Amino acid sequence: MSNRIVLAYSGGLDTSVAIPYLGKMLDGEVIAVSLDLGQGGEDMESVRQRALDCGAAESIVIDAKDEFANEYCVPTIKANGMYMGEYPLVSAISRPLIVKHLVQAAQQFNGTHVSHGCTGKGNDQVRFEVGFLNQDPDLEIVAPARDFAWTRDKAIAFAEEIDLPIEQSTKSPFSIDQNVFGRAVETGFLEDLWNPPTKDLYSYTEDPAMGNAPDEVIISFEAGVPTAIDGKKVTPLQAIEELNRRAGAQGIGRLDMVEDRLIGIKSREVYEAPGALTLITAHKALEDVTVERELARYKRLIDARWSEEVYDGLWFGPLKRSLDAFIDTTQEHVTGDIRMVLHAGKATVNGRRSSHSLYDFNLATYDTGDTFDQSHAKGFVKLHGLSSQIANKRDREAK
């Protein structure tokens, strides 16, 4: 066999079927690479063994939880990364890390091809393949679900035909992707936009209507990075995990949205991201206190553009790198504490403090001790509105 195919292996139906299928179609051997991104659920050793049982020549599991949290989740928090103002880029930020490790494995094992389990309808094909082309353009790319016109029912039939060791749960009609930053569910009955999500779709969150007692939490940041929960020092990974547990118990982080995919179609997605959304909410609140007004206004535009670049699979692109540099400069003073109440599906900020705060009590107060000189305001208002006043005078006279 001359071909060696390095496959991004999730342990699910599509990538399990891909192992024998790719071996047959490309007359080669498959090296399965799985990343532990804190997705929980099945033991990663079971995932590794399943790849071997499905015919992989090698099966590698990489513990990338801290790398993912530090180098992918933290930049997303700093950028308040939310595609369309809602989706915290749960899957989008994991793809460049998977690409990085697949390329490294291809170099280690003299791989000729890299492969993924994405279809031709989704965004992930773009994220993977643009990443491969940026990291090692000499590798050939193959996507069996797209290139060989696989459907889920065909994949299930093929698995049963050759008696692949696939658990019944992986034959679910839903497509599920998850990591420590969140969980994404699509397809199945969700493709009818009128159908509401059912309780069994959720795994990271409890029903917000359960009536759990409110949970007050203090999240501390240093230069935009979460560093403590309730005064206890934590790593970024620990911060996300702790808030997944506490915010998830309150039903925080559920999203049901129709998003604009890069390829031009609209797609319904159900997400759970309790830790991610809680941290981004807290981070935004601290920026409100510590980032100067004009910089904050411009950063909101940059945050939206950063989110689009990442969603569109351009993590390794020059614009995204430059946006990272800008965002990092804005985080110099984003240090302090945010107090929040987690309850009934909402993370509500009710306290803020920072040694870098731009909030001046003596300027803001309406009580005795006010140092704001109101005599300056009248002239400021006149000058601020002067250009529009002149334009409106012209337009009235022109009628």
Can you describe this structure?
Keywords: Amino-acid biosynthesis, Arginine biosynthesis, ATP-binding, Cytoplasm, Ligase, Nucleotide-binding. It comes from Corynebacterium doosanense CAU 212 = DSM 45436. Pathway: Amino-acid biosynthesis; L-arginine biosynthesis; L-arginine from L-ornithine and carbamoyl phosphate: step 2/3. One of its GO terms (cellular component) is cytoplasm. Homotetramer. The protein is an alpha/beta fold. The protein has two domains: 171 residues, 3-Layer(aba) Sandwich (Rossmann fold); 175 residues, Alpha-Beta Complex (Argininosuccinate synthetase, chain A, domain 2), CATH 3.90.1260. It has 14 helices and 14 strands. The strands form three sheets. The chain has a five-stranded parallel sheet with strand order 3-2-1-4-5, sandwiched between helices. A five-stranded antiparallel sheet has the order 10-9-8-13-14. The chain has a four-stranded antiparallel sheet with strand order 6-7-12-11. A hairpin with a 2-residue loop joins strand 6 and strand 7. The chain starts with a strand and ends with a helix.
